[in-house]
Specification:
By secondary structure, the protein is α+β, with helices and mostly antiparallel strands. The chain has helices at residues 19-28, 70-78, 93-102, 181-192, 220-226, 250-257, and strands at residues 6-15, 37-38, 45-51, 56-62, 82-90, 108-118, 124-133, 144-150, 168-177, 196-198, 204-207, 214-218, 239-247, 262-264, 267-270, 279-284. The chain is 20% helix and 38% strand. InterPro entries: Glyas_Bleomycin-R_OHBP_Dase, Glyoxalase-like_dom, VOC_core.
Amino acid sequence: MALKNVIGIDHAVVVVKDLDTAAQTWKQLGFTLSPRGTHSAKMGSGNYTIMLDPDYIELLGILAETDHNVPTRNFLAQRGEGIERIAFTAIDSAAGAEEIRSRGFEPIGPIDFERPVPLPDGTISAAKFRVFQWPVAEAPGGLRIFACQHKTRETVWIPELMTHANGARQLKQALVVTPDPAKDATHMSRLIDREGRSEADGAVTVASGGDRADFVFLTRDQLAARYPAVSLAGLPERGGAGLVLASHDLAVTEKALGTQAVRSGASLVVAPASATGTLLAFIAG
């Protein structure tokens, strides 16, 4: 039985060394970014968001060392920049935490937090969340997962932030490299109670739920075969590797990206070295 209180991918967390430098990098790729946000003193982090529909990308940076952000600091030290975590949308975080507990996984949380949000009219509101995590050790393909309940969607999905010069509309896939795609896909399936399916090239896809993006587990060689014109320098042997995004118009995407992207089959692809350790593949849709 699929989890009732946890639905598909909500957002991808890309951890960066310097938030403002990373923001400029992603702006140059044609993304509209939110104003910089600051989390609580306990969390010790800040972010920029790239709002899509119905999901988004979060650029996360450490502002102060705290006990809470030790895993993220370890990730940066060992891997460098890139996709550290994927969030699911939680309908009810407390109920979702109990659901995974009943399946033998001790949740971390739920934890409530908020951050101030400057609104287009010049006022300040707050984005409020309740999140819980699967155990840190339960990281399929080296990818940590958690669930996020949005208490104030109107302060996160702000219409003025949802139009991007590069045409990006929605996440379609989260790419996870691993020496053993079948094993890590099975691990993910067990955590979220959703079946995987094998692809022709040996990759394994696990649906995240609803109309949300899929997880695709594949080896570095399989990823290289999918995007042969793209350098994978900087990607790990195991971990979050990239995102596939739907664009409303690939001609618009191509114009916005210019020389920062290469054509690879039906995709326009930005190398990880040009997007803070994250391969970006734009497809029509």
